[in-house]
Amino acid sequence: MLSIFLNLIAALFFTGIVIRTKSLASGRKGPGILQPVRDVVRLFRKGAVYSETTSFIFQLAPTVYFASVVMALMVVPFGKSPGVLSFNGDFIFFAYVLALGKFFSIISALDTGSSFEGMGASREALYSMFAEPAFFILMGSLALLSGHTSFQEIFASLHIGSQISYALAALATFVLLMIAMIENSRMPIDDPKTHLELTMVHEVMILDNSGFDLGLILTAGYLKFALYGALIVNLFIGVIPYQYAIPAFFAIQFLMAVAIGLIESFMARFRMSHNPQFIVVLTSVSLLIFFGVLLILQKFV
Amino acid sequence: MDILGNAVMLNGTILFTFLAFIFILTMPQKIGFVITLFAILFTSLSSSWLAVQALLNHPIELSLQFGSFAGEVLLKIDGLSAWFILIINFTVLTGFFYGKGYLKKYEQSRNRISLHWIFFLFFHLSMLFVCMVQNGFAFLVVWEIMSLTSMLLVLFDHENPKTFKAALNYFVQMHIGVTFLTIGFIWVYHYSGSFSYDALNTYFQTNRNLWLFLLFFTGFGIKAGFIPFHSWLPHAHPAAPAHISGIMSGVMVKLGIYGILRMITFLKSDFLLLGEMVLTLSVLSGLYGILNAAVHRDFKRMLAYCTIENIGIIGIGIGIGLMGIGNNSPLMFYLGFGGALLHVLNHSLFKSLLFYSAGAIYQQTHTLNMENLGGLIKSMPKTGALFLVGALAIGGLPPFNGFVSEFLIYNGLIEGIHTSSISQIILYVLVLAGLSIIGGLSVLTFTKAFGTIFLGQPRTQLTHKPQEVSSIMLIPQYLIIAVMLSVALLPQFYMKIVGSQLSILHSMDAEPAILEGIGKTTANISFYFLLLTGIVAATWIARSLLMKKAYVNSGATWGCGYVAPNNRQQYTGKSFSKPLGKIFNALLIEKKEFEELKKGEIHPAGKSYISHYQDFFEYKLIKPSTDWLVQSANYFSFVQNGRIQSYVLYGIVFILALIILSILNIIS
């Protein structure tokens, strides 16, 4: 239960910190850290405009998308304390329930009949497909290393001891951070601030959403950031007591938000055709982790 | 019920089928239909009753006399047969009612309809007997009847040359499969002098298991559609009427899986090696199937490729189960085979659902090309919702039944990772990655199909305005969804049935705690499904309450400032999957037919551009070899010279050869 509260708090600030970092890096003062939350609250009270082309799918999709992220949040543990749900193979459920949300956000984009949104949907489907094996190989390697099969047990029994395991933790952080960037459609895969529909991925898919639905989609985005941040935190905190773990949680989430802000400030988006290659590289990094785990377990003889 | 009653029931199914055959031919159409219905119901109910008996651990054994040639044939319904029999009966029943509605407009052409239902009855009966017979010879006979009747059912639209070609292709490939099976059974017969399954058992006990199993695996794999034996599926499924495609893809293909599982019951050694082979081939089948499904624009062909993918997933389960036997890990055994058997059920449900709703689209629009469609959800909302449920379930997405069986298979893989052998660990992790790619690609495939067919605006002007189909076509689909939801909400019940029958495959001494653990995990899944549905419902209610006061308006889709968009400018299915096709262009061969602008062509006339994807195995492996075969057959054309005298001469030479060979005691 603890993790969901912590994640909700982290989600409140996360996007704000990213935006603030970007403003500071570009020499502006920038909005307050809670501005994204204020935006969402405003959106929840607003009316909506629906395209005449759309059907009930378009209205239902944001709800399912949001619910899928909340459901995924429930299986994420926090150190010693398991998520609201914890069972063997829960990370499979995690990945598939997020895929359900993605399915609905894709068909909602196609429902508008806009060629731009179709293009964004096509890209989103392709990129998230390529990101799946990276996540599964990473989790499979961690399961192999720890001898367990649920998020909480895996993370609780990860001991960062030898030098190789430091290297593995660094690589795993990189993979999870990049998966977070892909899932949230941030740089270097997608530029949320671009102004040209042709170069967008996620933003173009929600062009026609407004009011409550848009608020839900944005909230789900904030939660997703905290979600992946929490996974990274879990790599490090293990079973240390709460008085250290909770500050560490917020510190790492904060660092991750700043890192994302800096990446977005100093990097340009990859060319669209390079994105799949980049995402496949993630899979090979995951494979590297896998071989590292085999090394640690002395399976190579 | 006693043995006599069971015999009466089984003989009754045969008798009623033949009676119905005579009645359909002689009686008026109305009465013929009633008789067909009666025969189907009797066959389904009586065989289901026997199957339920078998599942309650009262296996049924009977022997039928098949004359002096085949001798006594043992019929047996054990848990494995019973599971498949129940699946067959459910799908055939839904297919029958759906087919009644689907073929309504053909009712004037009486001969065609009568023949169709006669073949349908025999098809059903032969599928049931495939699961029952315990004798190689009898098995080949019923297997052959199944292949032939299904081919004749595919041929419903026989005036269409494409259908004819697809049926011929299917016919030939099935017989290549039968050849493998025949060699397998004769091999055992040669060794032990018996066609009965007991002979198989003794053969496997005393000989190397690998080769004979691979022989049977190839034979059954052609039916099941493992690569590279899959190329009949994408031709036969689009050609057949929708209910036949649904039954063929939903259950007939699974009888290949049944055959493989039946052979596994006899296996005595080589488990690890075979497990590794099956796992590798299965994950490749899955990837290949879904890759092709993602790019095709003929939506029934897309579903056919998707069947290959799902056979791959089932095969992964079987592979894990075999590895479980080899590693002596009961957990892997139960997760692997349990997941595979549950996926057999699940796939039969959502694949028939998808084919039925695809048939509804075809009936209303008369096109299989999804690029001609669009916006159908407004004119056919029920079919749209049914297709959506099928699409979510087949992608293995929660909260539907596909997730349950895929989850078990995933868990089996992760359980396998904890084994000690490094080669196995690497294999499991690669299969894990493969399975996750399959999952991701099926999201791409089905968002594309659903989005292109049902969402947006109609892309072309259809001659008839599509309307929602009749309720006789819809009700079977609702029934399928009801069963799908029961699997999703009560997976522990289904898993208990499956788990209690797995000892047929191999006797593993598992502690009951293992089964209980699996049961608990599956029970949890249904709770999470309910929770997810609850969150969706809560969010939806909050949304409705807040939106009540809000100002809601409607307008045009945002066109980036362009004010005259038309329906042809929508994103097409082809462009949706084009990036994927480009990345995997080594496997997905795109053939483009177009005429380039010639030099100095100042006033170009109308040009056309067609591109379509070709099956890698069909065009790179099968076609070159059959072409070569046809080429070399030309050299023997002198034999077929059309002169009666030569043919008589061949006969005489043959008889003389027989006489001389038997005098010399070379043949006896």
Describe the structure.
The complex is a heterodimer of chains A (301) and B (668). Chain A is mostly helical. Chain A has one domain (2-296). Chain A is built from 11 helices and 1 strand. Chain A has helices at residues 2-25, 35-45, 56-75, 90-111, 115-146, 151-156, 163-183, 202-205, 211-237, 242-266, 275-296, and one strand spanning 48-51. Chain A is globular. The N and C termini of chain A lie far apart (43 Å). The mean pLDDT of chain A is 87. With 668 residues, chain B is mainly alpha-helical. Chain B has a domain at 270-543 and 574-587. Chain B contains 24 helices and 5 strands. In chain B, the strands form 2 sheets. Chain B has a two-stranded antiparallel ribbon with strand order 1-2. Chain B has a two-stranded antiparallel sheet with strand order 4-5. The two termini of chain B are 47 Å apart. The mean pLDDT of chain B is 89. Classes of the chains: A mainly alpha (301), B mainly alpha (668). The interface between A and B is large, with 80 and 83 residues. Strand 1 of chain A pairs parallel with strand 3 of chain B, so a sheet runs across the interface.
